[in-house]
Amino acid sequence: MHISLYAEDFEINLFQSALPLSGENGISENKTAFKGEFGKGYYKEIAFEGVHIGFGNVSLKDRVKLFFESDLETVEMHFALKGKSNVCASSFKNNVRFQDHQHNIVYAKGICGELIWESKELQLCEINLSPSFFNKFLPEDNSLFEKFRSSIEKGNSNLITQQHYHINHQMYEIIDGIMNCQRQGIFKKMYLEAKVIELLLLQLEQFSEQDNCPTSLKKRDIDKMYEVRDFMLNNISDTSSLLELAHRVGTNDFTLKKGFKEVFGTTVFGFWKEAKMEQARHLIAQQGKSVQEVAEALGYSNARHFSTAFKKTYGVSPGSLKA
User: Fold this and answer.
1) Which of 91, 121, 151, 264 is deepest in the core (most CB within 10 A)?
2) Going by C-beta distance under 8 Å and a sequence separation of 6 or more, which residues neighbour residue 199?
3) Could you give the CA distance from residue 135 to residue 130 in angstroms, rounded to a whole number?
4) Measured between alpha carbons, how far is 79 from 171 in angstroms, rounded to an integer?
5) What pTM value is reported for the model?
6) Cα separation, 308 vs 267, whole angstroms
């Protein structure tokens, strides 16, 4: 496996990967740091049999054009978490462009071309699967999937669908788990393989839903939905109303209520409650916090209200996690 990424203007090879697909306990890891005229950042790789995970973040000083070469035959689960990119390669009929919060599945075989980073900050996660690994999970009796399967069999680089889809909350949670996995050795390999399959499941389900049409929201409104999501996750104890959240990102409560459900498949406060409960479970089970401490940390007026909400979510009282 060989991937090379370089910038002609800077006369340096920015990135070159030849990561082996086996190491201790069958898993290999590598982290590359970028720092130079174009900006700074990092890219981390984790590989095991049939799977290569790569993710990173880059802060750019300006728009950058790069060149890439790859001898891989791969099926890539691509997640553009932040920023805009544009790939031009002769193997694809059209340029492949990604923006914030978009995902797709791409088949590529031995491609080279130009990559343009158009944003000051880029964050991505890309999971490359061997075709044999991917084909084990590609459903049959679906015209969209059969066309993609045919492209793989013929060796024709292609996207599973020409329309990118939006990364939903479930996908973000899995991606976060992958990028922040602290397990080691065989347990890390088991965890990551399970999460990759779960993430692939969510992608294929989203593609297969016939009524899953692209959102009617404008790009700027979609961005505002993600701004609200990020605010709630970073301010878990806040008690803002729907109107206050809407005004915080420059929209109205009707657009927020409708748009958030359309993008994330749940209500604003349903999402916030789920995030609070997950944080509560972590604070109690992993950090040993008391029920009273957690209730206060999450903005509940009293511990009884918090305990009721927790039991309704998980079916057990929060105090039972400390046993």
Assistant:
1) 264
2) 77, 127, 171, 174, 175, 178
3) 9
4) 9
5) 0.74
6) 20
Q: How far apart are CA 306 and CA 291, in angstroms?
A: 8
DSSP 214: P
State the Cα–Cα distance between residues 136 and 129, nearest whole angstrom.
Answer: 11
Q: Which helix (H) or strand (E) holds 291?
A: helix 291-297
Contact 218, 154 (CB under 8 A): no
Question: What is the chain's length?
Answer: 323
Q: What is the token pair recorded at 209?
A: 């839903």
Host H or E run for residue 107: strand 102-109
Query: Is the alpha carbon torsion for 156, 161, 165, 168 positive or negative?
Result: negative
Least confident of 16-25, 80-89, 263-272: 16-25
Q: What is the pLDDT of residues 2-41, one digit of tens each?
A: 566 666 554 444 444 544 444 556 899 999 887 777 788 9
pLDDT higher than 80, residue 238: yes
- Helix, strand and coil in the chain, % to nearest 5: 40, 30, 30
Domains of the chain (ranges; CATH) run: 3-208 (2.60.120.10), 219-322 (1.10.10.60)
DSSP secondary structure letter of residue 290: -
Using CA atoms, how far apart are residues 225 and 258, in angstroms rounded to an integer? 10
Distance of CA 27 to the CA centre of its chain: 21
Closest CA to 129 of 95, 106, 102: 106
- Per-residue DSSP letter, 267: -
CA distance 280 to 294: 6
